[in-house]
Amino acid sequence: NQLLPPNPNPNQEKAWGGLDIKTLAGGVLFLLLSAFLFYHGISGNITASVTPLIKKEGIAEPELMSRAYLIARLKNNEILLEKDKDAPLSIASITKLFTADIFLEYLNDPMELGRFSENALQKKFSDENLSGVAAGERLKAEDVLLVMLAASANDAARAAAEATAIRAFPKLWNAPWEERMAVFISLMNERAASLGLTHTHFANPEGF
Predict the structure, then answer these.
(1) 140 contacts 122 by C-beta, under 8 angstroms
(2) Closest CA to 160 of 208, 96, 203
(3) CA within 13 Å, CB half, 34
(4) What DSSP line would sit under 51-75, residue for residue?
(5) Do 197 and 97 meet the contact criterion of CB atoms below 8 Å apart?
(6) Exposed, middle or buried, 133 (CB in 10 Å: 0-12/13-18/19+)?
(7) What is the pLDDT of residues 15-40, one digit of tens each?
(8) Using one digit for the tens of pLDDT, what is the confidence trace for 98-125?
(9) N or C: which end of the chain has fewer CB within 10 A?
(10) 151, 176 Cβ separation under 8 angstroms
């Protein structure tokens, strides 16, 4: 338990009041940045945009284009603003998060290969986003996830669903594509029910 000397770094440069140069320079930069923000009105704009969400009484309904919204303080489950919070709505590509969750349950090795079949690559909608992967190509599970979530590629979601269905039920190896998808969608809806998501229902793995 050796005691440290009063000044661990006797060669450290000192500024006014015993502060070291780095501390002083950091303080100066902070003051300059604060002055810049206030001069350009940035701080005021931030305050104006946040205040209505904090105030509960006497505020006008915000003008939002959202079909529905919910703003809550999770610490005490206090709802600040809401509009049609229980209305069933299409969640689009958020569906891919559910697809990824179930995919990871059955293909939990990031190096395991998942195959992109012709059915997965076949364009289902006129303007959907596809990965460009060739039919028959095999990607590592972590790359399938990356393409599906980062690029929101629908064919990657279908490939993940197909690989998961076959892994969960090996007898589906020779089953038609439609049957594989039906099995995976059943897994999705079973998971939703187990989580108590009574307003959630899935019809495909990509959410288009």
Answers:
(1) no
(2) 96
(3) 6
(4) HHHH--SS-PPP----S-EEEEETT
(5) no
(6) buried
(7) 444 545 555 556 666 666 665 555 55
(8) 999 999 999 888 888 888 888 887 877 7
(9) N
(10) no
* Residue in this structure with the two tokens 């950091």, named with its chain if needed: 26
- For 184, counting Cβ atoms within 10 Å of its Cβ (0-12 exposed, 13-18 middle, 19+ buried), the class is buried
Phi, psi of 176 (to 5 degrees): -65, 155
Query: Is the Cβ–Cβ distance between 204 and 181 less than 8 Å?
Result: yes
Average pLDDT, the chain: 78
Q: How many residues does the chain have?
A: 208
* Opening angle at CA 143, ends 115 and 94, nearest 5: 95
pTM given for the model: 0.63
Strand partners, 113: 140
Distance CA 132, CA 148 (A): 12
DSSP letters, 65-106, are --S-EEEEETTTTEEEEEESTT-----GGGHHHHHHHHHHHH
Taking the CB of residue 171, how many other CB atoms lie within 10 A of it?
Answer: 7
Structure tokens at 166: 């076959």
Nearest CA to 162 out of 174, 148, 177, 147 is that of 177
**pLDDT, tens digit, 9 for 90 and up, residues 3-14:** 444 444 444 444
The string of pLDDT tens digits covering residues 183-204 is 999 999 999 999 999 889 999 9
